[in-house]
Design brief:
By secondary structure, the chain is mainly α. Among the domains are: about 150 residues, no CATH class; about 120 residues, no CATH class. Helices cover about 65% and strands about 0% of the residues. It is built from 24 helices and no strands. Helix 5 packs antiparallel against helix 6. The N and C termini lie far apart (about 75 Å).
Length: about 400
């Protein structure tokens, strides 16, 4: 038997005196020693030997075999990480052997421990270890296995959604309700992570929950999936969620879906029809004006960044036109912004600031001053809440010459 096999056995025995005394059900055994070691099959013993090898790799990462993983000489960090890797691993093994009866189930759970340790060893070899992540990962593994045994996983999962819990998604997959709770929580907290992995979520209910949760936060990616030919198309289109169905309606019926998607909130609330959206998206000036209004309307939501990106794209149309006509008369050169209000010209400047020629800026600035009258500059800036004033001021200081 290897050093680490002996270590695990000793560790399990040493935990016995401090074992938990209450169980959520009468058949659950929470003592921290393996009560019937003679029932461990040779196959499972091989898996435990694999766990030993991973523990050895983890232990020697700091150059010393001492069942401690030194973290910058910090006693607290070292203790937290070492307890998670060594003590919690031993505790999980004891729980599995004492409570599960099916050999394949035990193998599956022991395999999860190996996956955890392999993940840790890759990180520590790269010199980057997120201690809270690994403390949570091993604690979650223990609690999830308990929950699966007692058929009460959902509450723990719902109350502990984080990236460590998401790592255990394959383990939770067998519990439909818990899997849905995990995916809903992840979609709420980390939509940018989960929606891009939607095809890997095998639980259909969980995948549907992710689509529904992610749609209001990133409607454009749902639109992209709905109009694609990839497997994500079917996943999105089977959704019964009203918000998702509104996106699908845009995908199928809008004149310009990639522009119409920015009106999803208003459309879903019944404030604007698809016919009206089509009229706006066909007119560059009307569309730019509406994007400014929508950004202000949803300034405090996740959609603001989406409007920022679109306004940058739309401002570039005005800027490119003015720059390309730098040898033309002002009447020709600045015709592209003649119909725009002072506020709209202001946003052309701040969103197109990276590409504006000095002469394009000056022409736009002068027209903005004319159109803002009778307001003073201070009154004008106050009327827009001094939005992006720093960008505007920076543009004044860093003008580009053609």
């Amino acid at each position: 038997m290897s050093r680490f096999s002996l270590f695990i056995c000793c560790m399990l025995l040493s935990f016995g005196a401090n074992a938990q005394t209450t169980a959520s059900v009468s058949t659950e055994i929470l003592v921290d020693t393996i009560q019937k070691r003679h029932l461990i099959t040779s196959g499972r013993m091989q898996i435990m030997n694999m766990i030993d090898r991973q523990l050895q790799k983890a232990d020697v990462a700091d150059g010393i075999y001492d069942q401690l993983i030194d973290r910058d000489g910090d006693i607290n960090k070292t203790a937290l990480l070492s307890n998670a890797i060594f003590k919690k691993t031993a505790k999980i093994i004891a729980y599995i052997e004492n409570n599960e009866t099916e050999d394949m189930q035990k193998r599956r759970y022991l395999g999860r421990i190996i996956d955890n340790l392999k993940l840790f060893n890759v990180d520590i070899s790269d010199g980057i270890v997120d201690i809270p992540f690994y403390v949570n990962l091993f604690e979650h593994t223990y609690q999830v296995i308990r929950g699966l045994h007692n058929k009460n996983t959902v509450a723990y999962v719902r109350n502990n959604v984080d990236k460590a819990m998401y790592t255990l998604a394959p383990l939770i997959e067998s519990d439909n309700a818990a899997s849905v709770a995990l995916m809903e929580g992840m979609a709420e907290q980390y939509p940018e992570i989960l929606i891009k992995k939607i095809r890997t979520i095998n639980n259909k209910s969980a995948a549907d929950a992710v689509v529904a949760k992610a749609a209001p936060k990133n409607p454009k990616i749902i639109l992209n999936y709905a109009t694609s030919t990839a497997v994500e198309r079917d996943i999105v289109r089977r959704s019964q969620d009203n918000y998702v169905q509104s996106i699908i309606k845009i995908a199928d019926s809008a004149a310009t879906p990639l522009k119409a998607i920015f009106f999803i909130e208003e459309m879903n609330k019944g404030k604007i029809s698809l016919a009206d959206i089509n009229k706006i998206t066909e007119d560059q000036d009307a569309y730019f004006k509406k994007m400014i209004e929508m950004r202000q309307e949803y300034f405090t939501t996740d959609l603001r960044k989406i409007y920022d990106r679109e306004l940058t794209h739309e401002a570039s149309r005005y800027v490119s036109s003015m720059n390309e006509l730098h040898n033309a008369s002002d009447a020709v050169r600045f015709k592209v912004i003649e119909k725009n209000s002072a506020i709209e010209i202001y946003y052309v400047i701040v969103y197109g600031n990276d590409d504006l020629y000095t002469s394009s800026f000056l022409g736009s600035f002068n027209r903005m001053l004319t159109k803002m009258k009778p307001k003073t500059g201070s009154e004008f800036l106050a009327s827009i809440g001094k939005d992006k004033f720093r960008t505007f001021f920076k543009t004044l200081c860093q003008l580009q010459y053609p």
